[in-house]
Amino acid sequence: MHKAGFVNIVGCPNVGKSTLLNALVGERLSIITSKAQTTRHRIMGIVSGEDYQIVFSDTPGIIKPHYKLQEKMMQFVISAFRDADLFLLITDIYEDIQLEESYLAKLQKTSTPILLLINKVDKATQEKLEEKVQKWREILPTAEILPISALTKFNLDLVMEKIKKLLPPGEPFYSKDEFTDKPERFFVSEIVREKILLHYKKEIPYSVEIVVNTFKEEEAIIRTQADILVERDSQKGIIIGNKGEALKRVGTQARKDLEAFFQKQVYLELFVKVDKDWRSSDNRLKNFGY
Questions:
Q1: CA 120 – CA 83 distance, rounded (Å)
Q2: Among 265, 258, 261, 260, which residue's Cα sits nearest to residue 226?
Q3: In terms of pLDDT, which residue wins out, 44 or 2?
């Protein structure tokens, strides 16, 4: 009997959802930084075996939205909730239990199985772990709780075995050689955005969107050009930096990661442009895939 299903990875920001997705799929699909709201889109990672297919879905961290972009991000979370055959709810040993109330209420009422993963246990005492387990048993008594470390891959084999047992019967949704639903341009934009998240402070990373205008794969090289969009002229100057040094650093580091991802030489060209208030425009957000 073949099994196939959608496994929705959910949690608060900064608990290691993207690290977990990459570890489970075995590919670098989600960018990873210490900043909240690193994930903006719904990203699917596909794992296929002889008699099963798992479609992992990494969604933005659950927050209460404060502007239009965040509203669109939470729509990805809601759509993934409807599709899910299984929830991987990831928290960590340090996180206070602060899931957005309406989403927590949905999880408490759902009949869909929940594996609750307490991440970063490699840094925890046994006493701290037992305290977290007890708290979550009170909040989600139907969930099965497993301690893990996404970074060191502790207990991830066990997580995969649990998932396979809980998958519903069904035929594969994707061919066996696919590992994501996203096109190449998406990974260019995400890797550039990751470098901006890592190197700029305060509001700058959250005011940025990356638009990939060209992606041409030749036999020996990939040539790609992208615009870094900001909301203010002052932000444009900060992104570029003195004599263009800050932008050059972003481009160099992004190019190296893209070459590792695509296993091919990459020529990356970046420009910075102002697109005022793009985060609050329905039309602009729709054009950007939100």
A1: 28
A2: 258
A3: 2
User: Are the C-beta atoms of 23 and 153 separated by less than 8 Å?
Assistant: yes
pLDDT value at residue 28: 67
CB 213 within 8 A of CB 259: no
Task: Give the highest mean pLDDT range of 25-34, 201-210, 263-272.
Answer: 263-272
* Sign of CA pseudo-dihedral 38, 42, 48, 52: positive
Q: Are 193 and 31 within 8 A, CB to CB?
A: yes
Sign of CA dihedral 288, 219, 272, 250: positive
Distance, in Å, from the CA atom of 63 to the CA atom of 100, rounded to the nearest integer, reads 6
Q: How far apart are CA 139 and CA 122, in angstroms?
A: 24
Alpha carbons 150 and 161: distance in angstroms, whole number: 16
**Structural domains present in the chain:** 3-166 (3.40.50.300), 184-287 (3.30.300.20)
Alpha carbons 77 and 259: distance in angstroms, whole number: 31
Give the CA count within 13 Å in the CB-facing half-sphere of 222. Answer: 22
Per residue in 114-125, is it b (16+ CB within 10 Å) or e — as a string?
bbbbbbbbeebe
Closest CA to 57 of 77, 38, 71, 74: 77
Model pTM above 0.70: no
